[in-house]
Design a protein that fits this description.
about 325 residues; alpha/beta; 11 helices; about 35% helix; disordered C terminus; binds phosphoric acid mono(formamide)ester; EC 2.1.3.3; Ornithine carbamoyltransferase; Asp/Orn_carbamoylTrfase_sf; Asp/Orn_carbamoyltranf_P-bd
């Protein structure tokens, strides 16, 4: 193989601290409109495979790859021969001979994405799977850095389902010294224990705090309140009364006032009147739509890192 090796981003744990800081820093550079003339991915071909609906992530990676000079092949949920029984391993062996990057959203797990990541000729990017939404967390970190100038020491209250956005947020924030992440998740809809354990390991190293409870009592003072919609893409609820269980976990002006949070974040899409009131989502504290735009800036940083384009100014070539 010639040319730079590609790098997979399937979990935040695939990034060491230097990688993580580089991607967030590069995302900030993109928010500032720097490097708009550079096309480090020219001559590369990116596959965009979305088995599930997406507005922000699909568009941010597609537009990002195009802006960086790549060409795209897009696959919808019914396009590949996997639908007729071809294995992911065989699919990956074929695609990796032709593509440089494959951006995948699936309702399956991390193992499915790892099956695509067969070699270093084609980078695989997790655009959301059942367990983790790592590129969302990178956009979250970019937005927090843009707003506060730092991540270290920030206090964040996450309210809502312990879904893939929450697990990625826990893995991300726990990497930064003295951050505090308070998760308030509905009973039986908390974070997967494996992610709490992994975040706890990070926190032990960094001095961060990650704490989960299943009620909305005694909310802590925080800088940021974060929520996601109750109906996570690609999932179904396992209890019929889930709306009653989730009802107390709505973010409204009372939650913002009790915590003293200056910033509200939502990964979108939102359902006003469910997980958040319109007053908060559309209010002056909300950076939800700034975060959505930052997904595009952050996606370009991720693409550069995965393509191996961050170590040099020259365009990368297909190996
Ligand atoms: N936040 C997010 O992942 O949005 P999409 O589902 O629209 O990509």
């Amino acid at each position: 193989m010639t040319g730079p090796a590609r790098r997979h981003l399937i979990s935040l744990d695939d990034l060491d601290d230097a990688d993580l800081h580089w991607i967030v820093g590069r995302g900030i550079e993109h928010t500032l409109g720097r490097r708009t003339d550079e096309r480090p991915l020219r001559d590369l071909v990116a596959g965009i495979l979305f088995r599930k609906t997406s507005t922000r992530t699909r568009t941010s990676f597609s537009a990002g790859a195009l802006r960086l000079g790549a060409r795209l092949i897009t696959y919808g949920p019914g396009d590949l021969q996997e639908n007729t029984g071809e294995t992911i391993e065989d699919t990956a062996a074929v695609l990796s001979g032709m593509l440089d990057v494959l951006v995948v959203r699936t309702a399956g797990g991390e193992a499915e994405l790892r099956a695509y990541a067969v070699n270093r000729r084609m980078a695989v990017i997790n655009a959301m799977c059942a367990e983790e939404h790592p590129t969302q967390a990178l956009a979250d970190l970019t937005t927090l850095t843009q707003r506060f100038g730092r991540i270290d020491g920030l206090r964040v209250l996450y309210v809502g389902e312990g879904n893939n956005t929450a697990s990625a947020l826990a893995l991300a924030l726990s990497r930064y010294p003295d951050t505090e992440l308070y998760l308030r998740t509905p009973p039986d809809y908390g974070l997967d224990q494996r992610f709490l354990d992994r975040a706890a390991l990070n926190a032990k190293r960094s001095g961060a705090l990650v704490e989960e409870r299943h009620d909305m009592d005694d909310l802590p003072p925080v800088d940021v309140v974060y929520t996601t919609r109750w109906q996570t893409t690609g999932t179904v609820k396992h209890t019929e009364d889930w709306r009653e269980v989730f009802a107390p976990f709505q973010v409204d002006t009372a939650v913002m006032a009790e915590t003293g949070a200056k910033v509200f974040l939502h990964d979108l899409p939102a359902h006003r009147g469910e997980e958040v009131t319109a007053e908060v989502l559309d209010g002056p504290s909300s950076l939800a739509f700034q975060l959505a735009e930052n997904k595009y800036h952050s996606a370009r940083a991720v693409l550069e890192w995965c393509a191996g384009a961050e170590t040099r100014g020259d365009p990368v070539s297909h190996g």
